[in-house]
UniProtKB/TrEMBL annotation:
Residues 1-171 form the Histidine kinase domain. Its EC number is 2.7.13.3. The keyword Transferase applies. This is histidine kinase. It catalyses: ATP + protein L-histidine = ADP + protein N-phospho-L-histidine. Gene3D superfamilies: Histidine kinase-like ATPase, C-terminal domain (3.30.565.10). GO terms for cellular component: plasma membrane. Pfam families: HATPase_c.
Length: 174
């Protein structure tokens, strides 16, 4: 329900993004702590491959956290027991790239074009009876775009997916 409300706020132009300093390392530490229990329960290897120093970003900590939770939560949801989810951060000169890679059910090329649409759910996700609203990726992408970044997808059915989130590094914080 909160995802639907947030997307409605974005469309209405009333979705507020603050411009605070965001410690990305702290966000990822919390993300890992939040999802370790779920990964253990499904016997999924959840690995975080991070550089020793991550930049401070400008943005809305809670909204960026929501986007990250949608990406990692989906990776765990669509990865079968015994699979693997890896979160990898790469710091460039002007942007931070974060890959969320899973060994899940993957997404067909046709569905990959549409998974960022509101309420859309990939055919294989529906067939596997995995619950979801079809709002998480739409919301995550909109949040990241409002921060000057983007989310892209590379996927292969039955092999898994990689969602790449990029966010600009502010010159002040660099």
């Amino acid at each position: 329900v909160s995802d639907i409300l947030s997307v409605s706020e974005i469309e209405a132009g009333s979705f507020k993004i603050s411009a605070d300093d965001v410690r990305f390392d702290a966000l990822l530490e919390q993300l890992q702590a939040d999802y370790e229990p779920q990964a253990k329960q499904k016997q999924i290897s959840l690995a975080f491959k991070l550089p020793p120093k991550l930049p401070v970003l400008q943005g809305d900590r809670d909204k960026i956290s929501l986007a990250l939770h949608n990406l990692v939560g989906n990776a765990l949801k669509y990865t079968p027991d015994g699979g693997k989810v890896t979160v990898t951060a790469v710091v460039g000169e002007q942007q931070l790239a974060l890959d969320v890679t899973d060994t899940g059910i993957g997404i067909s090329e046709d569905d990959a074009e549409r998974v960022f649409e509101k309420f859309y759910r990939a055919k294989n996700a529906r067939q596997a009876n995995i619950t979801g609203s079809g709002m998480g990726l739409a919301l995550a992408r909109e949040i990241v775009r409002l921060h000057g970044g983007d989310i892209e997808l590379q996927s292969e059915p039955q092999r898994g997916s990689t969602f790449t989130m990029t966010l600009p590094i502010s010159q002040k914080a660099a």
